Amino acid sequence: MSRHLIEKYRQRHEQESGGKANPWGGRLAVALIYPNTYHQGMSNLGLQTVYRMLNERDDALCERFFLPDPEDIEEHRRTGFPLVSIESQRSLSDFDLIAFSISFENDYLNLPPIFELGRMPFWREERTERDPLVICGGVCAFLNPEPLAEVMDIFVVGEAEVTLPQLLSQLLDPETSSRTELLERLSKQPGIYQPGGYDVRYEESGELIAMAPLEGLPEQVARQWQANLDDSQSMTCVATPDTEFGSMHLVEVSRGCPKACRFCAAGFIYRPFREHSVEHLRQEILDTDDEVGRVGLVAAAVSDYDDIADIGRDILEQGGEVSVSSVRIDAITIEQIKVLADSGHKTLALAPEAGSQRMRDVINKGIDEEQILAAVKLLAEGGIPNLKLYFMIGLPSEVESDVLAIADLTVKIRQIWEEIGKQAGRLGRLHLSVNPFVPKPWTPLQWAPMERRSLLEKKYRLLQKRLRPVANVELNFESLRHAEIQGFFARGDRRVGQTLPLLAEGASLKAACRQVGIDPAFYLHRERGAEELFPWDIIQQGVQRSHLRKEYEQALAAQPGYVCTPGCSRCGMSC
Asked: For residue 343, what are the contacts with CB-CB under 8 A and spacing of at least 6?
């Protein structure tokens, strides 16, 4: 036992306000795990939504588990103290069901230590009737579940509002007598993928040949989604100061994005694009007996929401403040900026993504340099002192001049920022976040190779050299190791999961792959065949492959594509 760890868990729980777990006794007990630290996990709206939905039921209870903080992992191992829940400090073995909520591929590396500290067998085949069922939900479960196919018993394919009630009805069925029977019953439910029920075969060259279902299972598992967002609300239900957004009440405004940027999975896997009604948002945010406080509006396209400025002004009038993570370059308005500035916003983010117009056409960004500079001018004049800019390098067909165009565009942005800042008597900073392009499933660029590390490093150095003399510009690069691991798992098949215990112990990707007998370049650096069967084809997403392929071919030709509009069904889904 570790008194230090127990006290830390108890203090965290005591600092929380809002939703509470149901009491034990006569209920289905669910251990909800976010595979990262408490500080990271408590900012995740998906986790908060599932926690609220489970504890609103009389027949279930849900408690949360997280990866211990770095300084606590060694304490767990030294004392033999198992991983325990935040609420009651119970271990995983006390629960009927273990549910992972996973949003990021890099968090896969945290799974081996979580299973180790939780005293659970890591591999699916090693678990027995005595072990709780292990399920996986979240974005990664319906983006590409296959890298975790040998770890998870089942995957929940789709949004919790639709899938969770169906799942619980099966788990609570008194006629279910064994683990095997339960898995069989679950696998026949809409949106449930049981990886053990499929015969997976490969070519000698490594490509996937088939994922053949056993008797009674579907050839593909259809993603489930909430048709009307107003039927529920994803928002903060448990508040805590121990997180990045500790003082903020997060509220989802919309789901998905209509702009169809060719690199962005969220714009495709959350189709059709859906918004909450204005009336619903007003009721959820403003009709409360509590102080409104600081409200974080969450969406892939917050500034696309027509009435966001009016809602923001109402929040201000009730003594609250408004925050957003980023704004869209071609949608931001003076009214929106004023609301954010009046709320005390010191930094806003814009995402040009590429410096040259050719590369913005490749990714179908749908903006030009004039729009970018106009948005910068609006923000500077609106009183926002600092600006963060997101760019990518390593995009398909990118050449040196495209990389240098990032620096050239930054210089133009800085000139506007400096001129207006001097007039206002303040000179803020520009923060550039430059990330390697990582091809993702269900996007037009899913066929594209990821650029090799040596070329990415060369492009980094090129940008550093060009921007070093420019004052008040801070340049940050994402870890190339993290980007490669993300790319490796994003488009991997179930063979890549074998590397997880090795990577979790600190092995390099190359060394881990060598030890299990696979080639990382096969997953990272080759262009996929036009008709190649993908591991994620086990999911029926709704977006037609032929549509994605056409968009990929247009990307290689640097031709801009389309933007979703109401009534559009070009991709196979009706928006």
From this structure: 294, 312, 316, 321, 322, 323
CA 49/CA 41 separation, integer angstroms: 12
Place of tokens 């696998």: 187
Query: Which residue is listed with tokens 């975790």?
Result: 148
Mean pLDDT of 72-78: 92
C-alpha 477/C-alpha 406 separation (Å) is: 13
Measure the CA–CA gap between 148 and 112, rounded to whole angstroms: 11
DSSP-derived letter for residue 349 is E
DSSP code, position 290: S
CA atoms 498, 503, 507, 509: torsion sign = positive
Full DSSP string of 486-543:
HHHHHT--GGGGGGHHHHHTT--HHHHHHHHT--HHHHHSSPPPTTPPPGGGGEE-SS
Distance of alpha carbon 510 from alpha carbon 493, whole angstroms: 17
Closest CA to 385 of 336, 345, 338, 343: 345
> Which domains does the chain possess?
3-222 (3.40.50.280), 247-478+543-556 (3.20.20.70)
pLDDT-based confidence at 1, cuts 50/70/90? low
Instruction: Retrieve residue 525's tokens.
Output: 């650096």
**DSSP-derived secondary structure letter, 196:** G
Q: How far apart are CA 329 and CA 371, in angstroms?
A: 7
Q: What is the pLDDT of residues 502-559, one digit of tens each?
A: 999 999 999 999 999 999 999 999 999 999 999 999 999 999 999 999 999 999 999 9
pLDDT tens-digit map of 530-544: 999 999 999 999 999
How many helices (H) and strands (E) would you count in the chain? 21, 21
Using CA atoms, how far apart are residues 494 and 416, in angstroms rounded to an integer? Answer: 50
Rounded Cα distance, 559 and 519, in Å: 33
Beta strands in 272-394 (DSSP E): 274-275, 294-298, 321-324, 347-353, 386-393
573 pLDDT exceeds 90?
A: no
Residue 251 pairs in a beta bridge with 235, 297
For the CA atoms of 436, 437, 441, 444, the dihedral, rounded to the nearest 10 degrees, stands at: 180
pLDDT digits (tens, 9 = 90+) for 213-233: 988 899 999 999 999 999 999
Q: Any bridge partners for residue 435, and if so which?
A: 392
Question: Using an 8 Å Cβ cutoff, are 122 and 112 in contact?
Answer: yes
Using one digit for the tens of pLDDT, what is the confidence trace for 126-177?
999 889 999 999 999 999 999 999 999 999 999 999 999 999 999 998 776 7
Which residues lie closer than 8 Å to 384 by C-beta, 6 or more apart?
A: 337, 340, 341, 345, 346, 347, 348, 428
In the block, residue with structure tokens 């595979």: 35
> Is the pLDDT reported for residue 287 higher than 90?
no
Q: Name the pTM for this structure.
A: 0.95
Is residue 558 within 8 A of residue 354, CB to CB? The reply is no
Task: Please report the pLDDT score of residue 497 as a whole number.
Answer: 98
The two tokens of residue 228 are 């009307």
The rounded mean pLDDT for the chain is: 93
Contact at 8 Å (CB) between 460 and 468?
no
Length of the chain counted residue by residue: 575
